[in-house]
């Protein structure tokens, strides 16, 4: 994916020598953009920027990420009733959800090119603020006159990150103040997580064949998490980069 991104930027730059320069923005104009990114998944972001003098542009990327997954599994198992073993079914349901908000302030320098192609590069500061992630794991065992349910909900503290890196890109202004393009960024990311992790467990049992019939449990365990780690993350993105200046 990285090679495709760099190839797209190169092609945009090479083709730039065959167009006029009537569609580019001027200093003092604002820009708004929509980005589709393909790195660890499909992500969408917005961008707000302002054109400065001498080819400089300052702005920030803004993104919101939400995920929700649910899966159900069924397995045939042996169930012990206290006197004998009977056939039963184990149903496992796993649900996860999480969200995060990100901004990435940048300052880029645009090359002086006398056509409608644009090439730029500069520093970028990606910042991610996460929300609590929730995982629900439910296990239900059913058999003749037998039922046992174990529900577990785990909430982990938000993960946050701060980075510093660089971005390069190229765009083609196919209409006045309107451009499409591609970009590539590489950042060093410092990630950290702090807060309480809670695990809520609920257990119920019923049925004449269940030796634990009538037993139930409802409790919460809390564990403090305070961790940080340094890693180099490559942000490789390619797709339609639509920007409008006004």
Q: Quick summary of this structure?
A:
The chain is mainly beta and 246 residues long. It is 6% helix and 71% strand.
Offer a few descriptive terms.
single chain; 246 residues; mainly beta; twelve-stranded antiparallel β-sheet
Polypeptide structure, described:
The two termini are 32 Å apart. With 246 residues, this protein is mainly β. The chain has one helix at residues 2-15; strands at 30-38, 42-51, 56-80, 85-110, 117-124, 127-130, 133-143, 146-156, 159-175, 178-206, 216-235, 241-245. Strands 1, 2, 3, 4, 5, 6, 7, 8, 9, 10, 11 and 12 form a twelve-stranded antiparallel sheet that branches. The protein is elongated. The protein has one helix and twelve strands. A hairpin with a 4-residue loop joins strand 3 and strand 4.
